[in-house]
Structures are given as C-alpha cells and as structure tokens.
Amino acid sequence: MTETVSGNAKVQGRKRGMKIERVFSTEGVHPYDELNWERRDVVQTNWKTGESVFEQRGVEFPDFWSVNASTIVTTKYFRGALGTDVREWSLKQLIDRVVKTYRKGGEDNDYFASVADAELFEHELTWLLVHQYFSFNSPVWFNVGTQSPQQVSACFILSVDDSMDSILNWYKEEGFIFKGGSGAGLNLSRIRSSKELLSSGGTASGPVSFMRGADASAGTIKSGGATRRAAKMVVLDVDHPDIEEFIETKAREEDKIRALRDAGFDMDLGGKDITSVQYQNANNSVRVSDEFMRAVEDGTEFGLRSRSTGEVIETVDARELFHKISKAAWECADPGLQYDDTINDWHTNPETGRITASNPCSEYMSLDNSSCNLASLNLLKFLKDDDTFDGELFAKAVELIITAMDISICFADFPTESIGKTTVDYRQLGIGYANLGALLMAMGLGYDSDGGRAMAASITSLMTGTSYKRSAELAAVVGPYNGYARNAEAHKRVMRKHQAANDVVRTLSVADSQVHKLATKAWADVIKLGEKNGFRNAQASVLAPTGTIGFMMDCDTTGIEPDFSLVKFKKLVGGGSMQIVNQTIPRALRKMGYQEEQVEAIVAYIAEHGHVIDAPGLRQEHYEVFDTAMGARALKPMGHVRMMAACQPFLSGAISKTVNLPETATVEEIEDIYLQSWKLGLKATAVYRDNCKVGQPLSDGKSDASKKDQAMAGNAAAAAAGSGVEPAETKVVEVHKPFRKRLPKSRQSRTTSFTVGGAEGYMTSGAHDDGELGEIFLKLGKQGSTLAGVMDAFSIAVSIGLQYGVPLETYVSKFTNLRFEPAGMTDDPDVRMAQSIMDYIFRRLALDYMTFEDRSMLGIYSAEERQRHLETGSYEPIEVSEAESLKNHDEVVEVRSEASLETIDADAEDRADVETKDTHGNEDREVPAKLHTGQAHTSAELLEQITGTAVDSPLCMTCGTKMRPAGSCYVCEGCGSTSGCS
C-alpha cells in the first residue's frame, strides 16, 4: 500500500482556508444531542440454514433509524473483534471515527480558515450523516480511522499492455483489489489477437485466453474468504480481431451450464459445480466507436485492426457483428456496450490519455490506473412539506460533501503506486444520489414521463454544477489538480458542454423550474470561477448503485432506479417481519388530490394485489406514477433508457444501471436498445432478459423457465415410452380435493337491516361454532321475482364457497368498491357511504367477521376506530404504559432476521413499526400493514408471492435471501451484501 499527501496543500499566494457556513446543525448543540437514542440487539441468521451468522447486543442508534439500517451498519461497518472491548457498539463511534479523520485531514492540509471553521465542518458533516442525508461509499466506513490502510475508493481502473510482465502484473494488482473487497475494470485491447504473430514467430494466445487465468484468479480469491463474487469488468474494442470470440465467450459457457444442469450437476449461482464453468466472475463490455455504429446503420463493412501495426487485417459486416453482440446479450446478458467516442468527448483530461475502460458497475470512467471515491445523497430528504424539491438546501449539502470527499484524497492509501499517483494528480470524485424513484413518486411524477425526466435532469445538473463550482472554489484555496495545466482548455470545454446541455432542458412545472434556475446559476459560476481558479478535481459526479449505503440511509430506491415494487418487506423490532405498502404512495396520492378515504382504499388494494391496476377510485392517467421495475405495471425498457439519457449530460462519469427486459424480448429489441442508447448520448448500456441465465436460483417454480423445464422433462418421458425404453421413475402427485365444512343444524346467526341510496334490504348471516362465517341470505325490499331469484342464487353461491374454504377476505376484496345503482348514503354508522349494495354488504361482513389486522389491510374500519384515529393517530387501541415503555431509550429490544411470528409481541410491533414518518421526521398517516407469515424474507420474494412470478435474481451468499437489482449489480435487503463493487 502507498501513502500519499496532497501535492497542492500549501500554495504560495493563495488565500488561506475556507469559511464553512452553518446550514444544518444548531449553534451550541452537538448534532447527537438533538436526537433520541436507543439500545438494540442485532442477531442475524442465515435464512436457508437457520444458523446464526452474527450477534451483537446493546448497539446504539437513533430511534428513527430502521431495524434494517441498524443491522446493516452493525454487521458491515462496526470495527473491532466481536465480544471484545475494542468492538464499536454505537453509531456515534462510527461517525466520529470517520468525521474526525476528515476534519484532521482538512486541518493538516489548510482547507479551513480557522479552528472554528474546522469544528463547524465536523458538526455539519456529522448532522448530515446521522440524519441519513448522505453516505460515503463502503470503503470509507470500513477503513477510515482504523489501523487498516486508509483506502477510501470503491472503484478502480487498471491497465494491461501487450507483454507477459504486464499481464502477470494485471493478475497481481487485480488480486490485491479483490482481496480488499473492491472491484476493478480494464481494457484488454492492447493485447495482440490470436490472429497475429509473436516476435518469435509463434501465434499469439489472444486476450480471451488470458481472461481465463484472470477469471480463475478472481473465483479463487472469492472462495478464499469473501462473501460475494469478485467484481470486475473486462472491455474489448470492437475493432479488435478477436472481438467475435470475446462476444461469444459467456454465451457458449451458458450453453455448457444448461447441458451440465440437465445432466444433474448443481449449476446454480454458488452451486458446487458452477466453478467448472469459465468467465463467470466478470462483466464483459464491447467498446464501440461512432464509426462502427454508423456502419451498423448504413449496413456497410467494418475493419478489424492489428494491435501491433494498426492495419486492417479483416473486414466484417457491421450489422452482422452487431447482431452477434445483441444475440449474446439476449442469451446471457453479456456483453454490454460502452460508447467510446461519447465517453471521450466528455473527457476533461484528453492530453493525459484516453478513457479506455470503466469500473465493474460502469459508472466510473476515467484514466487508466486510477480510482474514485463515492458518496450519495438521499434525495427524499430534500422534499419539502409542500412536495417541492429544496434545491437550495440540496446545493448546500453538495458543497460540504464535495469538500469532504476531496479532503479524503489527502490522507488516503491506494493498492498500487500507479493508482495512487494518478488519483492524487487528478483527484477524481464521484458524488451521486439515491432515492430518485421514491422522490418522483412522492411528487406525483411518473418515472417514464416528461415531467419525471425534467425533474431528474434538473437535480442532476444542479448536483454536478454545484460540485464543480465548489471544486473551483477549492482550487483557489489549495490549488487545482496537478494535471489541470496541461488539460485546462479541454476541461473548460467540457464545462461549457455541461452548461449547454443544461440550457436545453425544458421544464414543465414550477417545481422543476426552480431547481433548473439554481442549476443555471451554478453553471454560470462554474465557467466564471473555473476561468479564474481552475478546478481542484478532474471529475465530480457519477450515479452509482448505492446498494449497501442505500439501506444505511433507509432509501426506498437505489441510485437512479425506479421503485422495485409497491409493497415492501420490513423487519420488526423484536424479530419477525411485516408487509407494508411503500410509504411514498399515500403522499403521492394526496399530492394528486385524492381524499383520505380514497387514499386508504387505494393503499389497501395495493397491499393485496401489489399493483394499482383497477385500484378503486384511481384515475388511469395516474397509473404511470406508480409504475415499478418489476410487477404488473413494469416500466418499458426504453423508459429506463430515456431516464438515463436525461441525466447523462450532467454527469462526469456514467450511470450504473441495467435495462431489464421480459423473457419474451427478442434479439431485435436488444439491438434497438443498444442503438437508441448510442443516439441518445449514453456512455454505456447493459441489458438483462429475465431467465436468460441458468445460474440464477429462483425461489419457486412459478417462472416460465421452470415450466419449460418441466415440460421438457415430460416430453422426454413420453419419448422414452414410445421407443420402448424404460422411462425414469415416475413421481406420483397426490391431488387434494376441497372439503366442504357444513354448518351445524343449529347455528348462530345475525340479521342486519340496511338502506343504501334509499333501497331497503335485509341480510342474515350464519356462523360455525367457532364464529367463522358460513352462509348469507339476502332479501331486498320492493323487488321483483327475477331479482329475488338472482339474489338467492348469489347467496347460495357465496355460502357454498365459504363452506369450501374460500376466505371471506377474498370475497371482500372482490366485491367492495363495485359501483352500480342503488348507491349513496346508508343508515349504518360504520359504513356511511356505499358504492353499491354489494359494496355495503361485504364491508358489513368484514366488520362483523374479520379480524382488525385483516380489515386494516383492506382499509375497512368501524366508526369507533376512525374516531380513535382522529384522536390518537392510531386505529388500534394502545395502552398508555406500553406506549411510554416503547419510548424508553434504555429499553433493550432484539433485532432478528428470522420471520418467526412466535417470537413477536404483535401488538407492540404494530405500534412501533406500522407508523410511518415523512422525510422530515413528522408522523404521517398510518399505512395498512400486515404481519407476514409466508416464506418471503425480502421485498423480492414478497413480490414473487403476490404476483405469482419469479424475480430473476441470485440468492445472497451471506444470509441466503433473494437479492434484488441495484444498478448493474444485486443487493441483499437482509444483510446489505452486494454482488458488485459498491
């Protein structure tokens, strides 16, 4: 490891230090003293094996931090051996360890005008972190302030030349980076192809052969101690003579995986036999040029060039090669595309060298042998009470965070000397954000809408403009980056490109217009200050996956992603779990003008169905606001591309995101996505077609792939029988028929008279001895014989269904909110309005025969419960003594990952966890929730249960739960582990 210090910390003739403005913290009060703190126990269990994988008791967190956030921070970021006095046990210790190191780094390198400014910097940074307004990337929490090397970067780019020494050095450097839990990317295009000769006269091996060794090395290091696969990116230029072999590597291996799986080998991700397959530890990308993409459009030939001479040694049909790239991506999700000319057109340091590669997640793109430290803001924290985005507050936060990120380079350590030198000389930063999907939903904006894109573009422009403005201000204090002088004109040209892109953004409302005006002013300041001072940083912003740190900030959505699903899986204090509806949904509905009863009904519908299609009272033009990454209203693939295109012109780097396609997508659709991404100015694009990979374990057999496998097995058995071959042993499936639970001869019943919209009627309901509803009879006054017959038939049908086990909850969810005449006012104080007689009848039955928990999921409450909610904020009764005990911060509660309802005090859990709060910490209206009794352990598995379709994601290797997409990686909601470098 190499230790470095800033080469520009003390520059003659420059002003001494920066004045820090107090924005967030309170004068005379430490940020910790403003909060209520509580002690918790964290016990984490592997869902698959039942084994305890982590336990630490008595950890300290603010009371508004979720169970999931505190669990992830405790397990991932607290340092020191478990069970010893040196082990960290409080969030205060963790934040102090990091923030005080940053303060010292700033003081040692003359960033602050005075000691008072240094202290204010410490308090402001602490306030933002403890209130979950932003987070540094994971290496900061792992390493800063510890005895370990002070590595702060998560993203690395390496380089390799056409020599054996360089190739072996590549293996070594990559191994060191993997060992530290980070990821790296590199371009192999300098290595001569297998179609060229060596200086000795022999034939070269080619880059694909050397990929095998690197892949095996990555897999070995992972199995030697890491809990996730090594994160790496391999890039090859489209004009390399071995490009076709590179394109087909992983597709061919996927065919091998299928063959081995069908032969009975364990080929799931993490399976014992998957290690026999090659090229599984890297993401592959093809570097395409504008020349190649134009040849694809025109249908002309394209030349592949010798690595040693640069001469064209082979020509190929560009369209055919492009089809092979898309077909391979259709088969196995690799390779992605990186658009070389676009990337280098936005490059601030072309005089130093071209950008040839990226980090594994494709958001960091810069010079070879460089690194980038990341930080992400929680956008939802900046949503004001009037549902507008607080751009001014956001910009103040960005200024402080950029200052801290630049300070970290002064004291950081790096895995190699060359990476350390490049990073110190160019000081690349990667500020970004998370929770964009949740923010847009809360503002009533569709993710795939002009309004959503305008808001996202304005926020991204403000973030990067403010970052470069602060970078220019820092240059006046501690000097520009060392490589600035030789790249000054190019850097200023890129700043003008950002400014020009900002000028063409078309805002659609007052909310995005206000943010855009701030961005416009920021870019004007960038041009002015940059001309005078230069810039402290070659790069400022990226959009990273924000997997683990997103959970640390309690974000609903990661990075630039839309919401994954409308229902969430929430862990409870004391153990167990709960299904809740995304808390931004009620806020969005109120923003769009829906009344409280309508909000309750829509939320209850979403809780049951997982989507908004046919939700009662929801206008179809508002459906797009609630579109998600997965589920019945999943976003169209081009919706993802258009959102990336809206934000890309305002980023120094790129965007970590995968465009998800349904299993039915065609090769031609992938071709179109790749082509449109190039035309829209993206720097990189990756795609994933559902179920295209075998090595993705599914949690059930409901997916189409599973059905296809079963069908194939059935056909094979039939063929064997027809040929006289003894078929394999047939599995006998026992079919269980429904059983009718008849009512006793003498049973309890109740008769209810009612009036709906002036129409009178009577309902008689009969119950079993245990109180369960078993029959109903309906009679309407002043009715003809036909209607009477229809009502009798309807009553008999419902009664028989009830006796055969159809849950009353099912009938209630289907028949409530049906609209037809007569409708209107009723004479029932519990159901004041009914949209039809059926709506009234099943609401009344729900109140008479269903439990409070089941009714609350459907938004059905009695008059007494509604009154209690108006008085206390809760529909459910709560004992005062218990409420007070829940607020006792010395109480030790247990955090468990098992969904075991036997260990839950359900009443206490509902009161402690069903309540939701808005982004400012104020109590919001209660969102219907229910305790979860199934096999789901994450939102991904919960979505599978609701929709009946599988979410195509791997299982977490740490805790065994189903992961969900985050950028171009996967993240585990149970323990925070990721499959990438974030």
SSE order and pairing:
Elements: E1 2-3, E2 37-45, E3 52-62, H1 67-76, H2 91-108, H3 115-130, E4 134-136, H4 138-143, E5 155-157, H5 164-179, E6 183-187, H6 207-223, E7 232-237, H7 243-262, E8 283-288, H8 290-298, E9 301-305, E10 312-317, H9 318-332, E11 336-339, H10 340-345, E12 370-378, H11 391-411, E13 413-414, H12 417-426, E14 429-434, H13 436-442, H14 450-478, H15 484-503, H16 510-533, H17 548-552, E15 567-571, E16 577-581, H18 584-591, H19 596-609, H20 637-647, E17 658-661, H21 667-679, E18 684-689, H22 704-722, E19 748-756, E20 759-767, E21 773-780, H23 785-803, H24 808-815, E22 824-828, E23 831-834, H25 837-849, H26 852-857, H27 863-872, H28 880-886, E24 892-896, H29 906-913, E25 929-931, H30 939-947, E26 964-966, E27 969-971
Parallel strand pairs: 2-24, 5-6, 6-7, 7-8, 8-11, 12-14, 17-18
Antiparallel strand pairs: 1-13, 2-3, 4-12, 5-12, 9-10, 11-18, 15-16, 16-25, 19-20, 20-21, 22-23, 26-27
Protein model, in words:
It is a single chain. The protein has 982 residues and is of the alpha/beta class. Among the domains are: 7-152 and 357-549, no CATH class; 159-345, Anaerobic Ribonucleotide-triphosphate Reductase Large Chain, CATH 3.20.70; 749-886, no CATH class. Helix content is 40%, strand content 15%. The protein is built from 30 helices and 27 strands. Strands 4, 5, 6, 7, 8, 11, 12, 14, 17 and 18 form a 10-stranded mixed β-sheet that branches. A 3-stranded mixed β-sheet has the order 3-2-24, covered by helices on one side. Strands 15-16-25 form a 3-stranded antiparallel β-sheet. The two termini are 21 Å apart. The model is unreliable at 1-13, 223-228, 696-735 and 879-927 (pLDDT under 50).
